[in-house]
Design a protein that fits this description.
243 residues; alpha/beta; Rossmann fold; Arc Repressor Mutant, subunit A; 2 domains; five-stranded parallel sheet; four-stranded antiparallel sheet; 8 helices
């Protein structure tokens, strides 16, 4: 299937960009691809739209009047919204890839950029999210030794107590738990969950694994669920099997 979406379903894209020339240009090209496009010209309006409207993708400029892109991204993730985010940064602006990963950005693009590159990034993000969602729909409930992952509700409980996970923590846990015993390298996890553009930042996977373990593991020194395959990567325990 070559199209990014079925013809009768239009994706909603929010563009938060204070440069009217850029935002209008993006709207023209995205609309030509049958996307519904909403524009916010400052961070305050953009944050309101991000939190209160249904969006399939947010294109977010880093430097904005009112509220900057970093704070908007943090606020979106703090509210447990899983909407993918494409950050736009000027060449003179310092954008830390690790910070982008930590706050939940899915990709970033440096200005000036070509419109074909922009469209390619948009399609790649939506394709990756669609693949993740398709995988999520394959298994509704995963159970293992007191840990229950309700995939449809994106809900995780441990011994009856709900565990609050970020979007990426949930996706990471789900990916590993869906394939118990299978070892994923850090590079594989990075590519599957964040995409190729963060190549070289595999150590960030360690940070997410550690945070996830702190939330679900009874003993950090002796993990029960997420195991380390030394020298290779990580795997989900398969000793007791999954239901």
């Amino acid at each position: 299937m070559n199209s990014i979406q079925p013809a009768n379903i239009r994706k909603n894209i929010l563009v938060i960009e204070d440069d009217k020339t850029i935002s209008d240009l993006l709207k023209i090209h995205l609309s030509d691809l049958n996307f519904n496009v909403s524009i916010a010209y400052d961070g305050t309006e953009g944050l309101h739209k991000a939190l209160n409207e249904s969006n399939d993708l947010i294109v977010l400029d880093l430097m904005l009047p009112g509220v900057d892109g970093i704070d908007i991204c943090k606020e979106i993730r703090k509210n447990n919204l899983t909407t993918p985010i494409l950050m736009l940064t000027a060449k003179s602006e310092e954008f830390d890839k690790v910070l982008g990963l930590e706050i939940g950005a899915d990709d970033y693009l440096t200005k000036p950029f070509g419109i074909h590159e922009f469209i390619a990034r948009v399609k790649a993000i939506l394709r990756r999210i669609r693949t993740l969602n398709d995988n999520l729909s394959e298994a509704k409930i995963i159970k293992f030794a007191g840990l229950i992952i309700d995939v449809a509700k994106r809900k995780v409980t441990l011994n009856g107590e709900r565990i609050n996970l970020t979007r990426l923590e949930f996706n990471l846990l789900h990916l590993l738990a869906s394939h118990p015993g299978k070892t994923y390298t850090r590079e594989q996890l990075l590519n599957l969950l964040w995409g190729y553009q963060f190549s070289g930042y595999e150590h960030t996977v360690n940070s997410h694994i550690n945070r996830l373990r702190r939330k679900i593991e009874p003993e950090l020194s002796n993990p029960k669920y997420i195991l380390t395959t030394w020298g290779v990567g990580y795997r989900f325990n398969d000793n007791e099997g999954t239901e």
